[in-house]
């Protein structure tokens, strides 16, 4: 029986498989679909991860596919801000899974600008554009014991939403000495349709898909947590909302139905998104408020 298998993106599916020898049998007759996960923060260069949707055959006699073979390594990836263009450089980066990214250096994100991504690979061309909204600062935060366990703690951040605009927000977290990069906070996206001008968001620990990992949304005493609070365009919010629906509805996010995930990639699947960012450093202490 042949099935199509979605090989997940690093940040989208958050699968830390470096320590697991996961292998699949692959039927190379199926034309892989290119999956893009790319972003550009204000003040930062662009990062793009390219993977592919493959077909596997449970009865196949073909050789196994190792995770190191999943990333697309030989694509031409370019970025334009309407005034300048640059080629993104592919490189190994073990902070991501699969451990290969394309990154820029010349163009750095600016709020209000539009950024066009072009990917060329195997005779195909993918394009997408995104804008970077203005950053919204975290005005204050609260840390308090979780309602289920007094040795774990929750974070709540507060910010001001502009009632004259339609805004969308997404949080990412990185725990010092545990994480090497930012991961999407679990259930960490919100539209201003459901918040007031004086708004708040509960920031959960990122959901990490690993084989032996039991998720808790809370943090531990003395954790240093970096919260990247972002304003993002509508297409980014729709993508992350569809992803959260997959997780909360109990779908198999390791091999999800990609048609359930929103996309803004012309010619492929995935997301290219600009983020207006504000980063808060929060040290977990017992019942603190700032």
Describe the structure.
With 290 residues, the protein is mostly beta strands. The chain folds into two domains: 147 residues, no CATH class; 108 residues, Immunoglobulin-like. The protein contains two helices and 20 strands. Strands 1, 3, 4, 8, 9, 14, 15, 18 and 19 form a nine-stranded mixed sheet that branches. Strands 12, 13, 16, 17 and 20 form a five-stranded antiparallel sheet that branches. Strands 7-6-10-11 form a four-stranded antiparallel sheet, with no helix packed on it. Strand 6 and strand 7 form a beta hairpin. The longest helix has 15 residues. It is globular, with a radius of gyration of 19 Å.
Question: Strand share of the residues?
Answer: 35-45%
Count of domains: 2
Please give the radius of gyration in angstroms.
19 Å
Strand elements, count: 20
Oligomer: single chain
| Number of continuous helical runs | 2
- N- and C-termini, Cα separation: 57 Å
- List the secondary-structure elements in sequence, H or E: EHEEEEEEEEEEEEEEEEEHEE
Overall 3D form: globular
Structural class: mainly beta
Helicity range: under 10%
The main sheet comes to:
9 strands, mixed
Uncertain spans: 1-29, 56-68
What integer is the average pLDDT? 82
């Amino acid at each position: 029986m042949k099935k199509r298998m979605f090989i997940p993106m690093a940040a989208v599916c958050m699968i830390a498989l470096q320590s697991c020898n996961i292998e699949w049998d692959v039927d190379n007759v199926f034309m892989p679909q290119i999956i893009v996960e790319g972003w550009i923060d204000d003040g930062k260069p662009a990062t793009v991860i390219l993977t592919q949707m493959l077909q596997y055959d449970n009865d196949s006699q073909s050789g196994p596919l190792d995770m190191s073979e999943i990333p697309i390594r030989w694509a031409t990836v370019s970025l334009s801000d309407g005034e300048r263009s640059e080629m993104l450089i592919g490189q190994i980066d073990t902070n991501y899974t699969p451990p290969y990214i394309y990154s820029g250096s010349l163009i750095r994100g600016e709020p209000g600008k539009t950024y066009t991504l072009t990917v060329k690979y195997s005779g195909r061309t993918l394009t997408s554009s995104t804008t970077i909204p203005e950053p919204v600062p975290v005005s204050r935060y609260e840390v308090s014991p979780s309602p289920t366990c007094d040795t774990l703690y929750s974070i709540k951040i507060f910010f001001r939403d502009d009632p004259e605009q339609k805004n969308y927000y997404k949080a990412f977290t990185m725990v010092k000495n545990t994480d090497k990069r930012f991961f999407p906070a679990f259930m960490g996206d919100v539209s201003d349709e459901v918040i007031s001008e004086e708004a708040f968001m509960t920031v959960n620990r990122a959901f990490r898909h690993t084989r032996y990992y039991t998720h808790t949304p809370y943090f531990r005493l003395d954790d240093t947590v970096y919260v990247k609070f972002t304003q993002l365009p509508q297409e980014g919010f729709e993508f992350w909302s569809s992803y959260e629906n997959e997780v909360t509805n109990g779908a198999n996010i390791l091999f999800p139905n990609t048609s359930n995930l929103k996309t803004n990639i012309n010619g492929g699947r995935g997301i290219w998104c600009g983020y207006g960012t504000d980063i808060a450093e929060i040290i977990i202490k017992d019942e603190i408020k700032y």
